[in-house]
UniProtKB/TrEMBL annotation:
UniProt cross-references to Pfam families, sorted A to Z: Methyltransf_19 (PF04672)
Keyword Nucleotidyltransferase listed: no
Sorted UniProt keywords: Methyltransferase, Transferase
Alphabetized InterPro entries for the sequence: SAM-dependent_MTases_sf, SAM_dep_MeTrfase_SAV2177_type
One GO MF term: methyltransferase activity
Gene3D superfamilies tied to this protein: Vaccinia Virus protein VP39
Protein source organism: Actinacidiphila alni
GO biological process assignments: methylation
Keyword field contains Lipid biosynthesis: no
Protein name in UniProt: S-adenosyl methyltransferase
Length: 251
């Protein structure tokens, strides 16, 4: 459905049908997808180009949609090493598109589920593309709203605790704050389609960053996070974005 909202062609009739139902209740959902995608690019570029991150772990990768995170990071710093992780077998089919990086850097894909963070970390360590004993920029973009309840917070604690000091957490998360009725309908559609969804308030999203130092401008609606010219939707309302985003630093 995310690929469909982005205008991609790697989706199926069932995705398009459910996606059209979401659009009927919340026409701006395509904007939400584009806002998220633009934040992924801006945050990766900022981490690699300004903050000096050289290792990235992107969890919940989804179907590759160019430019991918490694392309953005390696454009800023060709030596960046990037590991993608996802539990969707379809992503594995398209993983070749994730493995074309610079000669100076490295890219890898592992099949792992964010809901089993200990196993995910074990697989990442054994694969060896990124070294968890050195700082890593962990990306959890548009994934935790698919983990209902307190389990999502436990996942983040497990993953962040495994990272070396000097690491970063990048996170985006859908919110009902600006249109509760619209997002209640969307949650129902996703759940009936077999994908439980829990969108969270600003305070609830902020709690994912407990123990971390927020990088300026902190937790904001995603299109307001370090906007750049031509880097995605910008002249839109917070309601149309409906997505919080932030980068946190692990001291």
């Amino acid at each position: 459905m995310y690929d469909y909202f982005l205008g991609g062609n790697t989706n199926y009739e069932v995705d398009r049908s459910a996606g059209d139902e979401v659009i009927r209740h919340f026409p701006a959902v395509r904007t939400v997808a584009r806002v998220n995608r633009a934040f992924v690019h801006r945050s990766a570029r900022f981490l690699a180009g300004t903050l000096g991150a050289r290792q990235f772990l992107d969890v919940g990768t989804g179907i590759p949609t160019a430019p991918n995170l490694h392309e953005v990071a390696q454009e800023a710093a060709p030596e960046c090493r990037v590991t993608y992780a996802d539990n969707d077998p379809l992503v594995l089919v398209y993983a070749d598109n994730l493995l074309r990086g610079t000669a100076e850097g490295a890219t890898a894909y592992v099949e792992a589920d964010v809901r089993d963070p200990d196993r995910l970390l074990e697989i990442v360590r054994s694969q060896g593309c990124v070294d968890l004993d050195r700082p890593v920029a962990l990306s959890l973009n548009a994934v935790l709203h698919f983990v209902p309840g307190d389990e999502a917070y436990a996942i983040v604690r497990t993953l962040v605790s495994a990272l070396a000091a000097g690491s970063y957490l990048t996170l985006s998360h859908c919110t009902p704050d600006f249109d509760p009725a619209g997002w209640a309908a969307i949650t129902d559609i996703y759940t009936k389609a077999g994908t439980p969804l829990e969108v969270r308030s600003r305070d609830d999203v902020l709690a994912f960053f407990d123990g971390l130092e927020l990088v300026d401008p902190g937790l904001v609606v995603a299109h307001r996070w370090r906007p750049e010219p031509a880097s995605g939707p910008s002249l839109i309302s917070d309601k149309d974005a409906s997505l919080y985003a932030a980068v946190g630093f692990k001291p």
